[in-house]
Fold each of these.
Amino acid sequence: DSGVTQTPKHLITATGQRVTLRCSPRSGDLSVYWYQQSLDQGLQFLIQYYNGEERAKGNILERFSAQQFPDLHSELNLSSLELGDSALYFCASSLQGLSNSGNTIYFGEGSWLTVV
Amino acid sequence: SQKIEQNSEALNIQEGKTATLTCNYTNYSPAYLQWYRQDPGRGPVFLLLIRENEKEKRKERLKVTFDTTLKQSLFHITASQPADSATYLCAHNTDKLIFGTGTRLQVFP
């Protein structure tokens, strides 16, 4: 158990809909990261937050957005869903931002999203 | 652009042998490289981190090397076991942690 909690574990929704994935980082971790992993691609970095502020951005679509709340939990919002958005979405956390040192990050078990 | 590459072909080896996985990077010089293990449908789990000024890092049956001249990191599992079967990912971090596509290792009894 990494200490990172993600909900829901599984989600099936229709095209065009909007979903919210939730992440609680490890106790004390200030950074939260979101990754997408689909069958034909590796782990794709989406976005990182540090203590409530956006720190780094990857290949995140405009239809997707995220935020980190004062209690440090984070939500990833996916809207106007398409079939190609079906993937495993991971949240990860670390104590500090990566640029400070060789921090490792701890992954949750992911949220399986299926768009039908 | 910064690229990190792993052999996408699966590596199949016999139990007891040493597995060696390769990670190559281009167009940059990472200060750190990390290795993770991922089982199907599960989140990646951190294994080892190696800094650019470290030639080698060990942890139990695992060994990682970092060759800044060759722009390459090697990940070794000695005395491999079927339980080592998984996908192994290398990652580099600057301001974000970018992963390679991973190499699937299958250890046969």
Note: Chain B is about 0% helix and 60% strand.
Amino acid sequence: SQELEQSPQSLIVQEGKNLTINCTSSKTLYGLYWYKQKYGEGLIFLMMLQKGGEEKSHEKITAKLDEKKQQSSLHITASQPSHAGIYLCGADEGSARQLTFGSGTQLTVLP
Amino acid sequence: DTAVSQTPKYLVTQMGNDKSIKCEQNLGHDTMYWYKQDSKKFLKIMFSYNNKELIINETVPNRFSPKSPDKAHLNLHINSLELGDSAVYFCASSQGGSYGYTFGSGTRLTVV
């Protein structure tokens, strides 16, 4: 089955700093999803990437999928306290029609 | 107009009890899921279900059973609750392709 490794496990940054979270798969990704979770809340969909080399942006968050479709990165520019939470990458194997998640990255943004 | 709704949001119960968590989606999706999030925030698939196939994660104890009265509902029934069942349970749905997965807001189950 798909295995996803996320790094770092936790990240503490000063407000205004840029940061990157990585997600690496043991297999070629059919679809790679990024979600954000705030404490006590559900998962908020951020972006989905499917094509090798694809890059998507939403506000100050950019996600990329490498050409081999085995690694994705999530980059936040000029971080704000509102960006704090747990970031989860999820992989869709296509045929199985289910998401397998990485272990998550806990992001803290200090004001 | 919640897309995927779960009830209850919080559930506190004693060991040995039987409980159910309900999930409904109004997106017209054909597949629904249950995920368990442990204390370390790791999300793990428990079941995926559409009107043709139930896929069970082999690590899920048979005390857990999904019940789907119709395409829009997938309830989770848990027998003989144990302390280790304490977690947050998420329901989700999808339509496949590039439409993604939509998650409910979670049910925090505490077994005492």
Note: Residues 36 and 42 of chain B are 8 Å apart (CA to CA).
